Amino acid sequence: xxxxxxxxxxxxxxxxxxxxxxxxxxxxxxxxxxxxxxxxxxxxxxxxxxxxxxxxxxxxxxxxxxxxxxxxxxxxxxxxxxxxxxxxxxxxxxxxxxxxxxxxxxxxxxxxxxxxxxxxxxxxxxxxxxxxxxxxxxxxxxxxxxxxxxxxxxxxxxxxxxxxxxxxxxxxxxxxxxxxxxxxxxxxxxxxxxxxxxx
Amino acid sequence: xxxxxxxxxxxxxxxxxxxxxxxxxxxxxxxxxxxxxxxxxxxxxxxxxxxxxxxxxxxxxxxxxxxxxxxxxxxxxxxxxxxxxxxxxxxxxxxxxxxxxxxxxxxxxxxxxxxxxxxxxxxxxxxxxxxxxxxxxxxxxxxxxxxxxxxxxxxxxxxxxxxxxxxxxxxxxxxxxxxxxxxxxxxxxxxxxxxxxxx
Lengths: 199, 199
Known about the structure:
The structure is a homodimer. By secondary structure, chain A is of the alpha+beta class. In chain A, 27% of the residues lie in helices and 29% in strands. Chain A has a single domain (28-56, 84-196), classed as Trna Endonuclease, Chain: A, domain 1, CATH 3.40.1350. Chain A has helices at residues 33-48, 118-129, 151-162, 171-177, 191-196; strands at residues 18-20, 53-56, 61-67, 75-81, 89-93, 96-105, 110-112, 133-140, 145-150, 168-170, 179-180.
């Protein structure tokens, strides 16, 4: 992965092997960036228009060392990324609890299941038991298409992998078990319009 | 605030003005520690017994600099605490969306409203509009009592402060508008039993 020279400009690197994070959001790594932005803007739109209250959870970080040069100005000096124990997004829409994970691939013919973690699957199973609505959003960034798959339709593909089957879902399979979320201007990815078709 | 010599033992301090974080959880600062532990254990109990799926959100952190000594082992070298835009806890209980904030005081006669932030109040207002159930848990650690207050009963005290009134809720007021959550062994703070009385 090439880091440091976007647009031909030399980026200021603070120390050897040290990468300044430009964006306020969690843009370390490359996965999920533009999908995450689209969803953040969509959720902000929903919030502003009182259509739903859905937030991305903060990235879980294990904090090891904090400096307090001044009482009011704590600086975290050592911390590590932790694996999330839940999905990234949840919230409430017309009394309904929504919970989902969103992932992106550059593949054009299948979606790798390695994008997801076993504990996220366990989490979404628990959500279903509590009568919440769990789903998965998958983006094929090279194709410009985004799908919403109810978790109960997604889970069988995960279980197929667990029992030794293929480690991805083919595009055709996803199409057969999902609904496409059309790109729009405002909101950018109106996934609630898809949710509405389920109830 | 005294740091460094609990139980008469000298704690290892890594650098000047630098405080190692002992606990995996967010125990920088002193606010909310034991209440947070009680709630985390309670939520783990609910999860294990499939009574509800409720998680504390990770502490939001703005990451400024990440070191990648090895590709697989990213270390955050500079980050700052961000103010959360929501409450700390949410989840689903029998199809119902729950959302709450939990705070602790050492005071014995009133609960300071400075423990809460305006954006948390705005967030809980939005939750009510979406037919979610929002509430506040307040712990008087010196008294050993914990209250659950529905947000619609809590909000008037916040609004009283905003219109120039007192900056705290008296213990008597809280008692009149809340239900006490009894301490137990398992779960430690069975707040769902209080939620049940509301439906």
